[in-house]
Amino acid sequence: MKEHYWILAGIGFTTLIMAWLPSISKKIKVSGPIILLLIGFLLLGLGLPIGWPDPLWADEGLMYFSEMIVIISLMGAGLKIGNNYSFKAWKRPFLLVFLTMPLCMVSAYFLGQNFLFFSVPSSLLLAAVLAPTDPVLAAETQLDDPEREKEYKGKIRFSLTAEAGLNDGLAFPFTYMAVLVAQAGGWAAFDFTDWMLDKFFLKIIIGTIAGFAIGNAIGFTLDKVHKYAGIKTFDGFLALSLTLFSYGATELLHGYGFLAVFFTGLSLRHYEKVSGDYKTKMHDFIHEIERILLVVWIILFGGSIMNGMLSLTDWRGIVFAFAFVLIIRPLAGIISMTGIRDSFKNKLAISFLGIKGIGSVFYLAWAFVEFEDFEYKNELYSITAYIILISIVVHGFTAPSIIEYFKRKTEQNENESGDTPKG
Description:
cell membrane; mainly alpha
């Protein structure tokens, strides 16, 4: 019985710290996930009697838990993006998704084959799971809530928020590709046409349409039932309900639920007849749920690291992890934004802050649930853990200062010019 109380006390202690963590992070200019990771190390050292990964998690449990955090974060990302961004501003996240992401994937696949000496399916899976930037661990580099967002129209935070919202869904077809190639036994028996028409085009289109349809339908309902029937809601948990409904319904309709959730939040945020105060309340509610789940995830991730997860790969995996975070993603980002009329510092910041995290773990676990006979499973988990850890530490110590620098610079330019340019 005492173990039960230890668990409650440990979780309560951690979530109590989480209440002050955003302010602490801002003050010391260190990202919150670093502090949470250290707390995870501490709780493992103290012997908190929970089911610590030893060192790997159970694939199915990891998949469902990561899935929940990612979809909640995607709803939050959609609700953050207001309509005060021009089409020109969307060019940056589109380039990050349609150029940076493929460049990173090709690089990871090539290195997986020729440096890590993985099989074709495992190299494909490595490329796919590392494609998305994370909407959860990267929360501190993203936009604020719908109303406070107007105070700072930063190119960097908008680009990273929109990229994280889009590419979590667009990475799914390539995870499917890795699974299908593995099931087929290689490229020769892989049905590329079926993959392209179904897993790429059809599921992306259904996910996008479903998201916009659900978001606008809820916005219309909120407006009309109040206007004509006097029925009004001000419950923030509607955002959580919408997250679960749009994700589940879209998956049942054969679409990508990740895309649907993001576009549901985005379209509801843009529905003008829903009050800004209510949008803020929904955003704040979903953000708090996300933070609570993040606490649990990072604590368990810390336990997995301490129990030996990082030892499941050799020096090649470690070199690859550092190269991917510090060289491949930044270089691919800068290349993709070559035609954008922007300062090199801005391009470098956007490219460098491509934080990797929980989305990658979800895709990895999903692939192993779909096909149990993947080669190099331990190595893939370990390399992904290295990349997440490197990203948490490197970006955790640099991102707050980078964001603050560009915020001050933008505010200074606005004060000098007397207005706030869009994009």
